[in-house]
């Protein structure tokens, strides 16, 4: 006989145990679907799920069922038994709580806001290799934001031209030169050539300034190529690799996290493509959840927006994101973040970039404080005095 099976997955008397994983969603039921049915279907589809008439279920299966236990307006909290989740497997977590559920006809929309991870789950993840203090010691920069700039236009320079701009950037006082997200290894600027040219310029800038100079050189490609590119960076004395973490995916980032740690490389995580799923407040996955996953896997820093620059993101979001990556304990924020104790997982730097120019820097420091990687790019390379100098003609003629 047919049981209204989704009711098995709703229990508003349930109190999550200390070893249960809790996910917070925003949801809108489709027409004709009650909230109870909607949340029961989300809990079902993201755990043991079934829609056929149930046979008499063995106890083990029943114990694995998720429970929607708190419905408040269009927000629901769902508790998941620990046994549902493979130790240390971030892709599998996403397939569970951020997989089929987005395509259910029973829902008009669904947004995964955050998930609070129990200690017994968290301890299987390595987290950042260095942590913010480790990065500061490595760069010998304390008490101020770390700074960098991206040669603009995004692509078009040869490796030598790119390195020349890099030299000017370092001599201008910046700690880092960052590749743009779509610069990898192009016919006019091969990765290997750029590494060699940048190494020469870095050594010169370090000699002339006495400071540690570094770069976020973009290794984004298939995983095997990324591993080889990381090895070349280490061979040439670099201490960072840049990865576009959304387009490469959590599995590749996890593989490279281990490889880069062995090589002594920190990972700069660019988040290009995040706005495909985190911009719509009613559907998709929040940036704070992406930031949580990437800190868990172990990037050293991740772009978290500027709230004042050219790309989407509010001040409240930037603050939640900064806490998500920096704090030992992330406090719950209504409908934005769940309480999270990070245990032994080290901190990661928020990176503020995107449409920044010196005039906006005070606003950004207001939001983030000084534990930050601050990138100004178009904001300096676009400077009227700067534009003409590089190519032999003088601005103004
Ligand atoms: C910034 C940037 C970064 C954005 C990414 C760009 O350059 O290099 O990719 O910061 O956005 O290509 O736009 P500008 P976010 O400073 O010239 O804008 O940091 O929000 O992920
Ligand atoms: Mg860019």
UniProtKB/TrEMBL annotation:
Mg(2+) binds at residues 178, 180-181. Keywords: Carbon dioxide fixation, Lyase, Magnesium, Metal-binding, Oxidoreductase. Its EC number is 4.1.1.39. Residues 133-385 form the Ribulose bisphosphate carboxylase large subunit C-terminal domain. Substrate binds at residues 154, 271, 303, 353-355. Residues 8-121 form the Ribulose bisphosphate carboxylase large subunit ferrodoxin-like N-terminal domain. The modification N6-carboxylysine is found at residue 178. It comes from the Archaea. Binds 1 Mg(2+) ion per subunit. The active site is at 152 (proton acceptor), 270 (proton acceptor). Because the Archaea possessing a type III RuBisCO are all anaerobic, it is most likely that only the carboxylase activity of RuBisCO, and not the competitive oxygenase activity (by which RuBP reacts with O(2) to form one molecule of 3-phosphoglycerate and one molecule of 2-phosphoglycolate), is biologically relevant in these strains. Belongs to the RuBisCO large chain family. Type III subfamily. HAMAP family: RuBisCO_L_type3 (MF_01133). PANTHER family: RIBULOSE BISPHOSPHATE CARBOXYLASE, RIBULOSE BISPHOSPHATE CARBOXYLASE LARGE CHAIN. This is Ribulose bisphosphate carboxylase. It comes from Methanoculleus bourgensis. The lineage of its organism: Archaea, Methanobacteriati, Methanobacteriota, Stenosarchaea group, Methanomicrobia.
């Amino acid at each position: 006989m047919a049981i209204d099976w989704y009711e098995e997955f709703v229990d508003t008397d349930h109190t999550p145990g200390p070893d249960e994983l809790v996910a917070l969603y925003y949801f809108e039921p489709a027409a004709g679907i009650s909230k109870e049915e909607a949340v029961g279907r989300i809990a079902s589809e993201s755990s043991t799920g079934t829609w056929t008439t149930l046979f008499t279920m063995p106890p083990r299966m029943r114990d694995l069922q998720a429970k929607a236990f708190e419905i408040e307006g269009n927000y629901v909290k769902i508790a998941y038994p620990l046994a549902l989740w493979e130790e240390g497997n971030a892709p599998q977590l996403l397939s569970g709580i951020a997989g089929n559920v987005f395509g259910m006809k029973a829902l008009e929309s669904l947004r995964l806001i955050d998930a609070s991870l129990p200690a017994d789950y968290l301890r299987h993840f390595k987290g950042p290799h260095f942590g913010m203090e480790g990065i500061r010691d490595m760069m010998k920069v304390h008490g101020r934001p770390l700074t960098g700039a991206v040669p603009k236009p995004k692509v078009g320079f040869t490796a030598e031209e790119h390195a020349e701009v890099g030299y000017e950037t370092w001599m201008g006082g910046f700690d880092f030169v960052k590749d743009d997200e779509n610069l990898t290894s192009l016919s006019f600027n091969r990765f290997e050539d750029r590494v060699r040219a940048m190494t020469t310029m870095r050594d010169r800038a370090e000699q002339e300034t006495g400071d540690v100079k570094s770069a976020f050189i973009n290794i984004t490609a298939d995983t095997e190529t990324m591993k080889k590119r990381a090895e070349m960076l280490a061979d040439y004395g670099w201490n960072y690799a840049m990865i576009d973490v959304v387009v490469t995916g959590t599995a590749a980032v996890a593989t490279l996290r281990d490889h880069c740690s062995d090589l002594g490389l920190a990972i700069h995580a660019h988040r290009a493509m995040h706005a495909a799923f985190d911009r719509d407040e009613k559907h998709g996955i929040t940036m704070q959840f992406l930031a949580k996953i990437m800190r868990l896997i172990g990037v050293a820093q991740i772009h978290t927006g500027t709230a004042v620059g050219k790309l989407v993101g509010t001040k409240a979001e930037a603050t939640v994101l900064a806490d998500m990556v920096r704090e030992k304990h992330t406090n719950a924020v209504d409908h934005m973040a769940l309480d999270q104790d990070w245990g032994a997982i080290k901190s990661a730097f928020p990176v503020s970039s995107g449409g920044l120019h010196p005039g906006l820097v005070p606003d950004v420091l207001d939001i983030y404080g000084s534990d930050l990687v601050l990138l100004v790019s178009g904001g300096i390379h676009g400077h009227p005095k700067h534009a003409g100098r590089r190519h032999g003609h003088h601005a103004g003629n």
